[in-house]
Amino acid sequence: MACGGPIDECFTAGWRLARKRFRVQLPAMSLDIASRFLERSRHYLGVEYPVKIRLALQALPPEQLWWRPNASSNSAGNLVLHLAGNVRQWIVSGVGGAPDVRQRDLEFSTRDGLPLEALLELLDSACADATAVLARLDAASLAESRVIQGRDTSVFSAVYHVVEHFSGHTGQIILLAKSFTPASVQFYDDAGGLARPLFLPEGRHDVD
Fold first, then answer.
1. What does DSSP assign to residue 70?
2. How many Å apart are CA 179 and CA 17, to the nearest integer?
3. For residues 177 and 108, what is the distance between their CA atoms, to the nearest angstrom?
4. What is the dihedral sign for C-alpha 19, 24, 27, 33?
5. How far is CA 173 from CA 37, 59, 76, 80, 179, in A?
6. Which among 49, 54, 52, 47 has a CA at the least distance from the CA of 204?
7. What is the pTM of this model?
8. Using one digit for the tens of pLDDT, what is the confidence trace for 24-69?
9. Coil, helix or strand at residue 80
10. Weakest mean pLDDT among 3-17, 36-50, 104-118
11. d(CA 37, CA 135)
């Protein structure tokens, strides 16, 4: 593709072309790849990320749950509210068709909100509802179109977005917990350089 205009116009044109080509390929996704993608997405949203968040927050001193390093940053509590809101809007509502009742601004403006267990229950409920939606999807449904947050997207892109978004904020929550209790948050046994996951039942792996 040739483009002689300003760089922002070239970027936009290139992005639209790549998006068009990608969407054409979606319906051809094999059943095996689609099922593996959905299975791993359910694992991350239903097991790995929520478990890591729970363990990190349980190690965090209670008075630090809603602590902010500065006015422009979020507390661990705000990040959990944000994750629950994002999962519900994009997957439970956007993909699954449930009513969208998200109040995104409150996810960031809340101060001294829910206690820890209530906060974790909110997140667990959102993740359980999301994984139930994912369990109903197949290769054909991943290619379907949706409008979420006013954006035209595909089911595949929506799920991918939620998983990567959840991963990023999980890392932020873990960092906050480790900054206050560095020795009490450990997810892997590094003996022998194998990084055996400690947050999963014995015998289960975080990758397969």
1. S
2. 43
3. 19
4. negative
5. 25, 11, 6, 8, 10
6. 47
7. 0.82
8. 455 556 768 999 999 999 999 999 999 999 999 999 999 999 999 9
9. helix
10. 3-17
11. 11
